[in-house]
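--- STAGE predict ---
source: upstream dedup step, 1 unique chain passed
mode: sequence only
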Amino acid sequence: EMMYPERFSNLPAHAWPRLRALLDAYEGGGAPIHMTIGEPKHAFPAWVTDVITENAAGFNSYPPNDGSPALRRAIADWIKRRYEVGVDADTQVMALNGTREGLYNAVMAVCPETKNGQKPAILMPNPFYQVYMIAAISGNAEPIMVPATRETGHLPDYASLPEHVLNRTTAAYICSPANPQGAVASRAYWTDLLALAEKYDFKIFADECYSEIYRNTAPIGAMQVAQETGADLDRVVIFHSLSKRSNLPGLRSGFVASGPNTMREIKQLRNYAGAPLPLPLQAAAAAVWADEAHVVENRALYVEKYEVADRILGNVPGYQSPEAGFFLWLPVDDDETAALTLWRETGVRVLPGGYLAQNVNGSNPGKTYIRVAMVAPKEETTRGIEAIRASLYPE
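--- STAGE serialize ---
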């Protein structure tokens, strides 16, 4: 009989099948308004198509695994402009087929299989992006979910963990700006986390893919604070992509950057397991990283939608206006009940917050929230938020 490992068979169901199982047996209460998935809907720069066409001959060649020199240089230049950190395009930057690939493979590439003679621990916020958990399990580590709640500023307090856990920690994931809550890690937060990582010798995997969608102030970055504090850059691994910044989720273009020693390990794994981006798409990505005008326009569209949400929901008890990102994290009594009520009454689809988190010690920190994606154009987003207000928060 065939033997199958049980590593993934006992995982909790993924968010999207759960959502369909919850809602699809019922008729929607109006024309559907989809506010579930964080897939950008604004237009990407029109000239992207031209760049791909002009470079179409590149489909005839195997693409370089780490990213073309032009793409890596464009990324290094962007890191310099955005964070005032100089990185070497050859040794400290690698192109990714979207950030998910990098966030997953980082554990395999740089986390040891034991630490201090024990099974390693990998820390992550709760709620969290599911890939963090799967990466930890794939790397034979224990995922440790740390609550990111209103009390902790919607960011995990890793320093609160017991010493025996920190002693076997090999990496900590942190998402800033946070999905789903829109909270931004401050300079002080990064400084404390870097000190903790130094003390207990673990790496920080900084998922910064929402970094370019914010209100007024550009979120500070992990690598920026590492440089300011003189921390070891090999300890900090940053992940970015064009999906949210440039409305190009289908281009699958992201990057990972760190110190040269960490990057050597990451590149070595990718030599065997990577899926490099086709050259014409790399050419497009290089052009997009080099252009900031479309990013400013895109950000302004989201700022308008933050203002719509504040105007309609501002006096709802417990409403917190997001600092960054494009999600609303709205308080409800019960996430599934709220999502189902909203769908049946209005046709608006949102994601129960508990689907983005795990039960730890009998408590799921997402259970009293719904996540609302503000990705559609302003008019549709406004209709959706008005329906949410009328259905879930009547005056």
